[in-house]
């Protein structure tokens, strides 16, 4: 049997074979086949990537907005042309179904399309004669070398939440994708180079915690973006902040879906199925808690029956509803939490353990799992399970549902199904969660709006995408100037914030 291919680093526009002494197998989660080997880059290789980005910044920061816009236009074309290949790489190393993977590429593409508008996004302000004979204006300027650290669950979309806007604003970038499924992230970066990014503007290094920590602490890195677990995100934010860097960390969640009795049951239950079990629950915006209000509790048996019919198979089966979990460790953790729920006294209405898929007997499969009677103090409620497990609770009123959700420390996303506009307005005004869906189960906004998770799901005041992303990847310089009538400078002051 031939050795699995070794995944290169991408430094200075070149594919570099790492000199690493530590390598990790990249596993197909449906078969346990080793499909690639990824290096844990050396400190010297990380320094080389940052040095290339620092050198490239000197010219890239002065490139015209139109130049950067044209690169983004070409990148979106290349992503469209290579959607199939990107999706195949995602499915091979992550496990999600091909339709899910293609949808992920589409969401990433949406951000790139938004970056094509950089000429309108990166605008300053100007006031002539703000005081007598004094003009004041702002310059929206790039920061320098920036870094992104991404989780495994969206190997294309999460990098797109980071580098397209960052480089479109004139920064250079070092990306550290997840070591569990790095190939799609690397191919995406190569497409960006093909689109016209100069060598060194976008670099890719692989590794684990050591590389992530080094990026947070490197003296030449100005800003760090992270998307992943709460445990890792908290550490990333602390390290980067202690090192004086700008940082954003989008972290864990416990997303709720509230169903009122006036909702359309056909719509609500079908939407809840996809939100809870799509991508095998491995997404930070997955619905992991359903709150049935009043008489809607009577719909639970029908929901369980529909969940029982969902098809579990390898991601290459386009008719599958959910594929395997990313790793054996992930499967063991999810099954352990299911057992914990049983021991805590939750009612196991549907048990997804022990799933066997013909032809993929070694796959990391866990089927749809539903717990009823879940209390707020149970571990299956307080921890993010990150698998196809839905906790269900019932309350009497919408006000009770809002109180229950607001008591949870996380604030990533929440949804309400209703046909009552007054109830929807009450909900959106009183719920303490950053992203709200009304008859939308997973309220991830379109890319020209910011991703606005809150409370325990986010550290940093600016999120990815939209106007907030441009603010995060730039600094505002304010110029106050007075000129004489003959063109001689009398007084000029510059302040920065």
From TrEMBL:
UniProt entry keywords in alphabetical sequence: NAD, Oxidoreductase
EC numbers: 1.2.1.27
Xref: NCBIfam families: MMSDH
Aldehyde dehydrogenase domain: residues covered: 23-479
InterPro entries, sorted: Ald_DH/histidinol_DH, Ald_DH_C, Ald_DH_CS_CYS, Ald_DH_N, Aldehyde_DH_dom, MeMal-semiAld_DH
Gene source species: Bordetella genomosp. 8
Signal peptide: none
Any one of the GO BP annotations: L-valine catabolic process
Descriptive protein name: methylmalonate-semialdehyde dehydrogenase (CoA acylating)
Family classification: Belongs to the aldehyde dehydrogenase family.
Gene3D superfamilies given in the database record: Aldehyde Dehydrogenase, Chain A, domain 1, Aldehyde Dehydrogenase, Chain A, domain 2
Superkingdom in the source lineage: Bacteria
Pfam families to which the protein is assigned, alphabetical: Aldedh
MF term (GO), any: methylmalonate-semialdehyde dehydrogenase (acylating, NAD) activity
